[in-house]
Amino acid sequence: MTRSTPRRPRPRALVALAATSAVFAAGVGLLAGAAGAASTRPPAAAPAAQPAAAHHATRNVCRTPAQGFLQCWAEVQTDSTQPAATGGTPSGYGPADLQSAYSLPSSTAGSGATVAIVDAYDLPTAENDLNAYRAQYGLPACTSASGCFTKVGQSGSSTLPAANAGWGQEIALDLDMVSASCPSCKILLVEATSSSIANLGTGVNTAVNLGAKYVSNSYGGSESSGETSTDSSYYNHPGVAITVSSGDSGYGVQYPAASRYVTAVGGTSLTRAAGTARGWTETAWSGAGSGCSSYETKPAAQTDTGCTKRTVADVSSVADPQTGVAVYDSTASNGQSGWLVFGGTSAAAPLIAGTYALAGTPAASTYPNAYPYAHRSSLNDVTSGSNGSCSASYLCTSGAGYDGPTGLGTPAGIGAFTSGTTAPPTTTAPPTTTAPPTTTAPPTTTAPPTTTAPPSCSGQLIGNGGFETGTAAPWTASAGVIDNSTGEPAHAGSWKAWLDGYGSTHTDTLAQSIALKAVCKATLAYYLHIDTKESGSTAYDKLSVQVLSSSGTVLATLSTFSNANAAAGYPLRTADLTPYAGKTVTLRLTGTEDSSLATSFVVDDASVTLS
Fold first, then answer.
1. Could you say which DSSP state residue 368 is in?
2. Cβ neighbours for 444, distance < 8 A, ≥ 6 positions apart
3. pTM
4. Taking Cα atoms as reference points, which of 506, 510, 586, 520 lies closest to residue 552?
5. Rounded distance between C-alpha atoms, residue 588 and residue 579, angstroms
6. How do strand 572-576 and strand 522-532 relate by DSSP bridges?
7. Which residues pair with 524 in a beta bridge?
8. N or C end of the chain: which has fewer CB within 10 A?
């Protein structure tokens, strides 16, 4: 088919997050309504009474989003009196308080680890505010100049999204909670272009691709029947601890906290308890999200019997804004700036991400949300408090052992956040006694061998990866593949590679030859959008991603996609090219379409990065 043929049929609309959000919300509402009529287990005995504390007015810092977008969960006190930025002691718990409450080895662990924070929009003052907080509490500076702090857009570039003061307060909270729990950690802030699941999920993929082993997410929305597909695109990262806030709306499940691949973090009210061994006590926070997922398969580590699918939460930490944490944000939002007191499970997710970082690198091919279930004794069991009414009472009321609002409990050190696998110590045989060596003539001296410098394992090999030249070169492509029409938007810029989408028998190809350096790790990355008029799970139209030798022999098929993989947005796809180090190979994408119903495979921002 040539471009003289009428333009491709208009593709099926992208998966409508707005519509699915409405359906999910309705499903959750029905579930909550049915549960609300059931009786609730009486709460466990409360701890010793605390002195009465003033009740503060609070608000969520993010406006209620449009359908299809997600909510940040930060809650700020609106009536607390705070000192000027240059002096005084801020209200709210500081790093020393949190480290004490959770027995964190923050002064001795975490060095070199990178914790990523994924949020929407930009906080222009993020680095300055972060270091104002750290200076106030005597923590080491964390700057971009030193390499401790990095801020990127959702695709990893220096192009940042528009500023948003509400989400900016969320960012400030997240940065300060990672600093409080793991002050020796590096911090990577990934700012999504908007609060859509596709953009925030792309930010998670970017964080992992940039090397973060701990990724904090303080946002959520209603569950949906398509969320397991979203899991596969954005949240399924073995060997990476991904923490997600459980939500601030009380009993009810939010996504992505419901994902079976993440650590869902609930919330508590944290108060001092003088005269006790721990010095602190906690109850479930009434705002923390919890419950039984409608769609997610139950992880093997979960053994509770009142929910056949995934249960939320896994663990918890302080989240009640009435017992909140100190945060510094110089960008005004709703007339507030400077020192503020925050809560919400938005505070808990980054604190737990920092705790994972203190515990060490997760074991490869494991899901760190399973670790606490193997180390329950290393958690503070929270045994009182409730976040609502439900049929299986433990899903909304705290008691001994596992419960929904607080999960298995809060950190009591870092033991619950380790994989528990360590290499056995090496055994050294006792020295043997030998006769003194005989004296021999000294060896002749020879010139040392010349040393060849290893190749530089850095840089990026793909040419015109974003197609913004408006031509194919150095790619070779079928006619019409390089495209800037509005029928399919680009991931970034105006141009992209659009394979197929005709609704008739057709094949498109896109290829580029690259020379891979010896001894270097090479990673292929690209953003792929698929939409289709097909329905069901049968693969009618396909895209293959292959590696070919210089003679044209197929060495490997890296990935195969089809109409069954259609989804909104541009998920980031990656593949390892290291097995072909030292060779010149061709990367080839081939889209094949059958005789009816269009499927479009749209590729953008491709790269091969050496490391």
1. G
2. none
3. 0.64
4. 586
5. 17
6. antiparallel
7. 575, 608
8. C
| β-strand pairing of 186-192 with 149-153 | parallel
Contact 75, 343 (CB under 8 A): yes
Residue 526 CB: number of other CB atoms within 10 A? Answer: 24
For the record, the structure tokens of 504 come out as: 């008739």
Q: Which long-range contacts (CB under 8 A, 24 or more apart) does 76-81 make?
A: 76/169, 76/321, 76/336, 76/340, 76/341, 76/342, 76/343, 77/321, 77/324, 77/340, 77/341, 77/342, 77/343, 78/334, 78/336, 80/56, 80/340, 80/341
Per-residue exposure over 241-251, b if at least 16 CB sit within 10 Å of its own CB, e if not = bbbbbbbbbbb
Phi, psi of 452 (to 5 degrees): -100, 125
> Three-class SS of residue 527?
strand
Record the tokens describing residue 585, joined without a space: 């190979």
Residue 35 has pLDDT above 50, yes or no: no
Q: What is the pLDDT of residues 557-595, one digit of tens each?
A: 898 999 999 988 888 898 889 888 888 999 999 999 999
Which among 152, 121, 189, 211 is positioned nearest to 574, based on CA atoms? Answer: 211
For residue 175, give the 3-state DSSP assignment: helix
Peptide bond into 313 cis (omega under 30): yes
| Contact present, 117 and 212 (Cβ < 8 Å) | no
Cβ pair 313, 406 in contact under 8 A: yes
Tokens of 372: 């606490």
| Cα–Cα distance for residue pair 591/596, rounded to 1 Å | 14
Beta bridge partners of 545: 559, 589
